[in-house]
Write a structure and sequence with these properties.
Blueprint lengths: L1 H14 L5 E5 L5 H9 L4 E4 L2 H10 L7 E4 L8 H7 L2 E5 L2 H16 L8 E6 L12 H12 L5 E7 L7 H20 L9 E4 L5 H6 L4 E4 L1 H4 L5
Parallel strand pairs: 1-2, 1-8, 2-3, 3-4, 4-5, 5-6, 6-7
Helix pairs in contact: 1-2, 4-5
The structure holds pyridoxal-5'-phosphate.
């Protein structure tokens, strides 16, 4: 089991361009499995459920240099805990949530619970998908001016998950559309020069994500094995 994890991480790292960060998605993975990944140099860990993540953070307190990423849909009543517990939130998927996070980030900064603003990505639905959260391109443009007013979040880029079942060509072109949108927002300087991140690519499509310009890939299954054992 642990030799599999080590082998997989080494394999993936070998092919990873220096511009791409590997984020280990550890939902349902035991803290022992996470320690193995840590031993292989992984420092970025992502969870999609707050309760599970907080429990693991407590159990892994001794690994103080872990950078925690949140990648799941976040209910607004959990926004406070999320800004206090995660350096990165990839899955900011509505204006209402963004505003809540901004509000609680201000509080957490003022109370010295955190020392830097959370880094966040805006989750976009580049193709219609009833099963996913996030802004359509049109909705995002409608909310841009309001998003620009958030002062306590570092808006770093876009995150996308494509609909299930697309061909490789469609996956690539979907990811390229996400990149084009990020480049467009960046060129027009909506969110400053650090709006340069693209969180796109999971176990099944990360190579296409990288091809389209991903800066962060979020890998679970390919490292830790299937979750539905
Ligand atoms: C589970 C999950 C991943 C990882 O998926 P794998 O297919 O296991 O690599 C990536 N991103 C998000 C948002 C997820 O929920």
């Amino acid at each position: 089991m642990s030799t599999d994890i080590i082998h997989k991480i080494q394999q993936i790292k070998e092919t990873l361009p220096a511009s791409v960060s590997l984020i280990a998605v550890t939902k349902t993975v035991s803290v022992d499995g996470m320690r193995v990944a840590y031993g292989c140099g992984i420092r970025d860990f992502a969870e999609n459920k707050l309760q599970e993540a907080l429990k693991k953070q407590e159990e892994l307190k001794d690994l103080a240099d872990i950078c925690w990423h949140f990648i799941g849909h976040l209910q607004t009543n959990k926004a406070k805990k999320a800004v206090e517990s995660f350096a990165w939130i990839h899955s900011v998927d509505s204006l209402k949530l963004a505003q809540k996070l901004d509000f609680f980030a201000q509080q957490a900064l003022e109370n010295n619970i955190i020392t830097v603003s959370p880094q966040v990505c805006l989750q976009v639905k580049i193709l219609p998908d009833d099963n996913k959260y996030g802004w359509s391109v049109k909705e995002l443009y409608q909310d841009l001016v309001t998003l620009q007013q958030l002062r306590f979040l570092h808006l770093r880029g876009l995150m996308a998950i494509l609909p299930f079942g697309l061909s490789d060509d469609d996956i690539l072109s979907g990811f390229q559309k996400v990149r084009d949108l990020q480049v467009c927002l960046s060129d027009n300087n909506y969110f400053g020069e650090n709006f340069n991140q693209l969180s796109m690519g999971m176990s099944g499509d990360y190579l296409l994500g990288i091809k389209a310009g991903a800066t962060m890939i979020r890998l679970g299954t390919i490292i830790f094995g299937s979750r539905n054992r």
